[in-house]
């Protein structure tokens, strides 16, 4: 078989791979958004900026300290997560008792401030970040060439998403996190530090964005604009999956990434809007999202 619906199989599989890679980033980023909204009820518009910070953390660790990709894969999300924890502790925590609009406006302003700061120091052009030697090259599958790094991104994303879902849904810590947001007074009676759990939750979501950023750095250039170009699409993914649904964010991220990639094969003109068309349809048919809970 050399063609699928009249499309050469190489082109089909190539776009399928691109869609799976994009879906990997959509899943990781929407997962972080879903955690923050689902547990804290904060619409985190700074998520794209935190994704960008993860990429820049890896770039600066290499350029300034000579720290390579593998240590940066651990350090970059930790740095972004700690910055996020500081933001939650000293700013967001003061807004929890107010209307959700205040936290939305705060994170939106924070995103603009972070993006503006990095643009001031590094300009709008992207900075290169080399693929680690271990993951350079690729595999010749006969019908297509599969770059090792892109295969690694897909595998790493699956591991990260599954591990995070298990942490939130299947562990005692995850149960404490969910309980702390639903009934903080009851949780305090067990001697649990609720504010610390809330800080950890936001730091975890920000750290996931930073991890996605360092994974993306060798594929896309490290740029102050990389987060703002992606965040609207990721919000659409979260809406389709269901606001606050962790499993919905993961599954929908991969599905819509693949759909976007295949649309570039069969109807390229619609590839930039297909996710938003799906979002509009889902909102009309099921406003809570595919896996969200009805109010």
TrEMBL record:
Task: Classify the source by domain of life.
Answer: Bacteria
Keywords, in A-Z order: Amino-acid transport, Cell membrane, Membrane, Transmembrane, Transmembrane helix, Transport
Q: What is one GO biological process annotated to this record?
A: amino acid transport
Q: Which InterPro entries match?
A: ABC_transp_permease (IPR001851), BCAA_transport_permease (IPR052157)
- Gene Ontology cellular-component terms listed: plasma membrane
- Work out whether the entry's keyword set contains Transmembrane helix: yes
Q: Where in the cell is it found?
A: Cell inner membrane
- Gene Ontology MF annotations: transmembrane transporter activity
| Keyword Membrane (UniProt) | yes
For this protein, the parts annotated as crossing the membrane are 12-39, 104-122, 149-168, 196-220, 232-258, 270-289
Name the PANTHER family on file: ABC TRANSPORTER ATP-BINDING PROTEIN, BRANCHED-CHAIN AMINO ACID TRANSPORT SYSTEM PERMEASE PROTEIN LIVH
> Which family does the UniProt entry place this protein in?
Belongs to the binding-protein-dependent transport system permease family. LivHM subfamily.
Q: Report the protein name in the record.
A: Amino acid/amide ABC transporter membrane protein 1, HAAT family
